[in-house]
Structure formats: structure tokens, C-alpha cells
Amino acid sequence: MGLMIIALGWALWQVAPPSEWQAAFKQAEPSWLLSAILIVLPHDILKVMRMEQLVPCVKPHRTLHAKITYGMTCVAQLPVGTLGGDIYRVMRLEECGAAAEDATAATFLMRMIGFSTTLAISGLAGLFVLDSAVPLIGPVVALLILYLLASSQNPPAFLGRLVERADDTGSGAWGRFLSVAARLLRHIFRAGAALTRAQIGRVLGFTLALYAVRAVLVWFCLLAVGLEVSYPIALAAIAIGNLASSIPSPAGNVGLREGGMVGALAGFAVAAAPATIAALLFRAVMIIGAGLGLIVASIVHKLMGKPAAQPATD
Q1: Is 164 part of any domain?
Q2: Would 157 be classed as within a structural domain?
């Protein structure tokens, strides 16, 4: 822990000298942070409603599901990152009656839709940051992913051949990895085939709404440190930050999302020190807000007195 604190201090020193950090903190407005913390509550309710589209059996247990979702948000801000949060959710959704296989497939299906949204928004933002047409690759790939998901009931032939080839791979660590990946893809597209295009559209709509609310959180964190930036810049920052956090890292997405956000803000001529503080505040706001939501959801669930569903069995 001591080494981590020293490393963090050294990294912050590289970003800006202490005088700039002091100036950024002096301009902080706590009211913006309080507003951001309160917005986390409806933000995570959108997550609950999105998952209900993919795993309908959790809908009767909404208070328990909300409790699980707030807990997942807290876990996802730790060094285990998004994957750790997803594992936590899959394990806990069994309490709502969802089979682990269905919850896993739905989670990865949701991540594919979320990643396509991230690619599209960050690509459009990149047009302004880089002044180049290269970022348009993002929206194109996003449309391809959404097309594949929308055609899950009758997937392209090359996908079937890809899965079969992965299944036929020989033994060894690489072969086992490909076999597991092929099995997961099969479950994902089976889950996608069970959805109507209207349901996929609703999941996409909830994902876009989540991005809009998350950008408000980032915007309020930027305003809290005295950065008078526009809402579209905050949207670009969180999109590029989320894209950076998709890079595999032993520390989860800790540092990657912040680095992506600061880099994006630098493209809009935002000073590094306050931008870094705002990025760190965003993570803190998510933890505090989700922790508050977890307390509220736990109390409501207990007062309603509804027992958890029995885990699904084969």
C-alpha cells in the first residue's frame, strides 16, 4: 500500500507541480460534487432496467437487483475493474433466480452493445480532438457489431465457421482458451437470438441514456474544480476514457480511464492538473454514490420483506 501511494504521488508530480494542484483544489465547489453523488442513484437504476431486458426473470426482484447493481458499481471502481464487477454481478444474480450461464451470456451481450456505443461516441469525439477522419473507424465497427447482434437469429456463415474452428483447436492452454471463447460466443449469440430487435433497441437506448447521465457526472466533476467546459466535452472525455479502460490491465481499469479522460480533455485545451483531479473525483463520486445507493436499496429490500429467489438449477 505504501508503494502504491508513493507511485501515485510520483505520477501526480509528473502531471503538474504542487502549486497547480493547490490552485485546482482552491477552486473546488463541493455543491457540484454533492449533485454528482446524488445522480449516481438514478444512473444505476438505468443499469437495473437495462439488465431486465436481457434477463427478464430478475424483474420481480428489483430491490434485490438494485442492491446487487450498486454493489457491482462499487466493486468495478476497485483495481479488479469492469471484469471484476461483472463476475460479482453474475455470481449475485443467481439470488434473483438467474442461471449463471444466462447471466454470463447477458452480461457479455450487454458489454458488446456498450462497447459499440463507446466506439461510436469516442470515434465522433476523436474527429474533433485529432482533426482526422481515422476515428470514423469507431462508428463503422460499432455498426458492424450491432448488425451482428441484430442478426443473431440468423448469424452470418463465417461466424459459425469461426466458432467451429475454435472448437476443433487442439489441446494445450491456447486450445482450451479458444474452446472456452467459442462456447461463450455460442451462448452470447443464443442469448441474442432470444431477443427481439425491439429489445436490443431498448438495451441500446438504456446504454445511450447511461452515457448521457455519466457525462453529466463527469461534467459536474469538471465544474467542481473550476473548469468551465461544455457538456459535449464531458461526453467526449468519458467516452474516450471508457475506450482506454477497455485495454487489458492487471490493475483493472484503474488509471486507464483517468488517463483517457485527461488525454481527451487535453485535446480541448483543458489544463492537466484540474483535469486529473476531476477524473479522480469521478471515480470517488461513483464509489460514494453507489455506496449510498447500496445502503438505500438494502433498507428498502429489507422493509419490503421479499425473500430472494432460489438459484436456478438445470
Answers
A1: no
A2: no
